[in-house]
Design goal:
Chains A, B, C, D: It comes from Lentzea tibetensis. The first copy, chain A, is α+β, with helices and mostly antiparallel strands. In chain A, the strands form four sheets. Chain A has a four-stranded antiparallel β-sheet, with no helix packed on it. In chain A, strands 4-5-2-13 form a four-stranded antiparallel β-sheet, with no helix packed on it. In chain A, strands 11-10-9-12 form a four-stranded antiparallel β-sheet, with helices on one face. In chain A, a hairpin with a 2-residue loop joins β10 and β11. Chains A and B meet through α1 of A and α1 of B.
Chain lengths: 271, 271, 271, 271
């Protein structure tokens, strides 16, 4: 089984009235099966750019955008396995008693994921399903069916409860809702976002954006689920992981610069 | 300046239908000026009790409550300074550009603290006040005036926005609202809870409960503010710190045991 | 399988010419199967005592001993399983390629453990033995045979190489030597010290001291080995873990106070 | 004050009889005043390359070198300030009592730095010098004078004591000895290595290698000292920090591949 080479990256153009501290979270996270071969990050005009790790150990970049127009670019080439991401339909749910300390957190409510509010619905829908990977898949199936994808249908303040009611959302809302249902059953689930190239996907997806999906703890590890697409894919490149979208923002600006444009890309580099 | 000796502790009695994994967060956190002299933790019937540190480095205890009635007790003796907690009315606000990496987090929205929703009000009320410790004190004064303390007026799902509208809350709501106003101005603020003995307070407070307050980053450190009481006190013993109450729960049960009783105490041990 | 109740503790009496900053590392570390029921730490005269975690996440206490005589005491009651510690003679060695990131460190040389210097001997003695738990046991057996236990035969500066040559050592030297042989074969091994009660040991051991032993990574976890005693025991209570004794000192004094006496105890509390 | 652009990098060529797990520590560490603009890492033949952070939070790369010849390359472009690194000759020494918890470690012995063995000499030479930055500079001056730089004069097992006796060493030995003298006086000191371009240095240095220097805690921060060169420089790019060289190896191989060649470079990119 070989590797495939993918070029990922993004560009943000801002127009700022004043100097604006900003944090970008756009870099590929290290992973056992993803190799970052090269990486460029630049900002024009040229100003200091400094990396650090956040509370969840995601790589972040701090910068102070100067007044006026500035362009931040990130680009990387990565090798990804030429294989669909794995699954194990027999992976068991683990009771809270046996969860590792650092996983417990992902059973609790967070800003956008509200298992407490959605507990009754989650138990009604999934409480009788035999526990394990297949039950999680049923949750994913349900959310994939229940929500209709629609840009602009939700806002930065929409919670899982809001989109469950409205029936519309973007990929982050799909993840928030499915995560909430999982946590209501004491199944640890966390939010993930990153680059998702169209490897072997037909037809190619809409114009590229960052994608959001989720991971669920079953057996002794995290497994990838994607309630927006609900298919196993090749080539996901994780940028950030956290409790929900409030923990992992691709750009956080301290001030009100105008975002003139944002472009995200992720495409195979053919030999 | 001497020390005073304080006995703190709590007791939880649960009645559980089935074995119930539970996390207690009730132990005194280490602090430069607080000395833990002795500590007991017990559970009857006797079962395993194991400590770990959460994401914010707060000490936690994991236990599996057996079916039936069980009683968890924590008690400690601590030495606290015989001095009112410090303040520096000249401590400056720090712009996001200059904040330490690990403090940035506390300028962002979290589950109960919603600076984004409250941004307009915060800027309207406090935007023209000269930055610094005194501005933070004005926020605290406002919240102390605006909210009326009332048990039962808010729930485990009430956000800062909810209590700002209703005008009622308990100590955690006071903290959530003041934290939200601070963060809206890019001032880092975090939630704290712990034991608060009535040292030199007349008259002594209502029957003891855990108390919630907050810390604000000014200059190069965190400073204590208490929007519920709005006075500087002696003898606070911190148990947990986090973004808001969702990060620091005194007890988290995975299942639905009945809480038969909860007692919290914190009183001086006189020689 | 029930638990047994053990009382552990220690007392250090110092005579200091001047105020002397000191770090004590004597507290029971949390463990899945060890429950700390109660804990007292005190210092007379009474001065501030503050906990923190070191680089290896071991609990430490900082204190400034006053001039004159001072007495530090730690005592705890813990529950330990009434079972001999486990072993799995089929547990496999893991190649460096597959070791977790955080375990790699324990294959490298450190101050007292010198696998580079002892590489030839280790390969000559154990290189032909089939890899796995049994090979580690052969290393332990060899060190247990090769070294003769003798107080005062080694110093705080003796390395594994020194004691291998001299043939004498105390428990920490047994551990350093066996760890060095393991690491020379790329088997991760780390140093452990703590309390070791005489549960079901006949005859009871010499007057109690802290004991040093080691842990070896096989399969997917750490396993306990004790080259000094070379028997599986009940009731070990770990205080600290590190690369070797330089990482875990029961007391570190910044200055030259005289240690008047040190007492360590660990005994069962009978019902 | 502007920035200058520096290209740094290295190349290792190995010939391995069998697959050889290897850790490279060659990447620029993030720093407030150093901006990594672009970074490439590659290995031919192409195999997985995965990043992680070690115990000291230094970036590392894991790879398994295939049997045969393989070439690892790292290259980055960084912006460094066009200013000599700062110094404050009035920065005070901090007593152990007041050191931050995480700094205490750097006052203790480690594998190559032996303040315990060198304590008498350190106190004899520097004990009477008034404490502070200037005393540290005196230590640096002494080591710079005392040791003669000579490739091959010391080995991977030479300690500070060894080179103090022999009078010869390479840059790492200079650092180990000066660190040992500092620690003997309870002054925290740690080992640093990285890229050191010849910005404004005349004549340019010998063929480039990684350089080792040190940092000392004075006042409330770490300050750079370089006992090998004993001049304040421009453009240092830190790769790793630790207690001594045993904590930060540019390449660690688990097996015995032959290192065919190693090239390190760091040079200004002129506009």
């Amino acid at each position: 089984m070989g590797d495939r080479r993918v070029r990922i990256g993004c560009e943000f153009i801002y127009d700022a009235a004043i100097r604006t501290p900003t944090v970008f979270q756009v870099q590929a996270n290290d992973a056992p099966r993803v190799t970052v071969v090269s990486e460029q990050r630049s900002i024009r005009p040229e100003v200091g750019l400094r990396g650090y790790r956040d509370l969840y150990d995601n790589p972040c970049l701090r910068v102070v955008l100067p007044a006026g127009t500035s362009t931040f670019r990130y680009q990387a080439e990565v090798l990804v396995p030429d294989a669909t991401e794995d699954a194990d339909t027999d992976a068991p749910e683990i009771t809270p008693e046996s969860l590792p300390d650092e996983v417990l957190l992902y059973t609790l409510p967070s800003r956008y994921c509200l298992p407490d509010v959605l507990a009754d619905e989650s138990w009604a829908r999934f409480g009788a399903v035999p526990p394990g990977y297949r039950r999680v898949q049923k949750i994913i199936d349900h959310v994939h069916e229940h929500l209709r994808f629609s840009y602009g249908s939700s806002s930065a303040q929409s919670t899982a409860v809001d989109v469950n009611t409205s029936g519309y959302g973007v990929c982050r809302d799909f993840a928030h809702l499915a995560i909430s249902f999982c946590r209501a059953l004491n199944i640890p689930a966390r939010y993930v976002f990153g680059y998702l190239p169209d490897l072997d996907v037909q037809p190619a997806a809409e114009p590229m954006d960052f994608a959001a999906w989720m991971e669920v703890w079953l057996g002794d590890r995290w497994w990838t689920f994607d309630p927006r697409n609900n298919v196993r894919r090749k080539g996901r490149v994780v940028v950030g992981r956290g409790r929900d979208a409030s923990d992992v923002a691709m750009a956080t600006t301290f001030g009100g610069p105008r975002l003139e444009s944002m472009v995200v890309h992720a495409e195979e580099v053919l030999p």
